[in-house]
Design brief:
The chain is mainly α and about 100 residues long. It has one domain. Helix content is about 55%, strand content about 0%. The longest helix has 15 residues.
């Protein structure tokens, strides 16, 4: 019998275009249920897909602080979220809940 080898799924390996990144973040907003750490983790996934060094440079934050802030283990400060979203080339928008 063959042994099946599995690997851990890493969504950042599948986020290739800005449209895919935006769609992923939008889906995470829908699933988060108000969990800010969940959204931070999603931003971390996108940042890793785009390149954490570049995001660190563009935000003016260290890679280490970005990894901590976007780990999903805690909710980062809102100004950090805004810096990361801007560095990723994404926009946040509001609409009426329906």
């Amino acid at each position: 019998m063959k042994t099946l080898k599995t690997t851990r799924f890493d969504v950042s390996e599948h986020l290739r275009t800005p449209e895919e990144m935006a769609a992923y973040l939008e889906a995470c907003f829908e699933e988060a249920g108000g969990d800010a750490a969940f959204i931070a983790k999603a931003l971390g996934d996108i940042a890793r897909a785009k390149g954490m060094n570049q995001i660190a440079h563009d935000t003016g934050l260290s890679r280490e602080s970005l990894y901590k802030a976007l780990s999903g283990e805690r909710a980062p400060r809102f100004d950090t979220i805004l810096k990361v979203v801007h560095a990723l080339g994404l926009k946040l928008h509001a609409e009426v809940a329906g």
